[in-house]
Amino acid sequence: MIETAADAQRLVKACLYAPEGGRSFGPVRARLVFGEGYWQAANREILPLAMIETRAAMENLDAIAATPGLAGLYVGPADLALAHGFPPGFDRQEPDMMAKLERVRLACKANGIAACIHCGDPAYAVRMSAEGFNLTTIGSDARFIEAGSRSSIARFRGGGDP
To answer: Contacts for 93-100 with beta carbons within 8 Å, 24 or more apart?
Structure first.
């Protein structure tokens, strides 16, 4: 939950190794998986994404997007909607919310960073991708597990898939 450029600067610093950041050095597991030279390539592969979920984040959007080292902005649509007086949920359709999403996308484009959004449905993810978002989710692990569980329970009870 990033609300200011200072928050975004702290995020970048926490994600990247020196000299670009201030992340503590000690990549034991990463060294075992990626080799001794992991630290030399890590900053090129780590993508600090600032979550945009509040009114304050929208008010400071341009300054946040301009943060050096930031790879992108990631919209949390449920929290962003709730912060603006809408019920929480994914896959927003309200004109006001769509305008906010477009504003995030344009701020990203102006700063050469990725525009990212959490989607609840693959069809909405396709739409957001077509509208210029660079990274979209197609759901979440918890919802996939929930859907599989519901389907299994329904079949067990003899009702077929829900």
So the answer is: 100/58
pTM of the model as a whole? 0.86
Average pLDDT, the chain: 93
With a CB cutoff of 8 Å and minimum separation 6, the contacts of 97 are: 77, 80, 81, 84, 86
CA distance 147 to 161: 10
**Partners of 72 in the beta sheet?**
49, 114
DSSP-derived 3-state class of residue 72: strand
Residue whose pair of structure tokens reads 């990549």 in the numeric block: 27
Domain 47-156 class? alpha beta
Tell me the C-alpha distance between 139 and 129, whole Å.
14
State yes or no: pLDDT of 40 exceeds 70. Answer: yes
pLDDT at 31: 84
- Domain extents for the chain? 47-156
Residues 28-46, mean pLDDT to the nearest whole number: 87
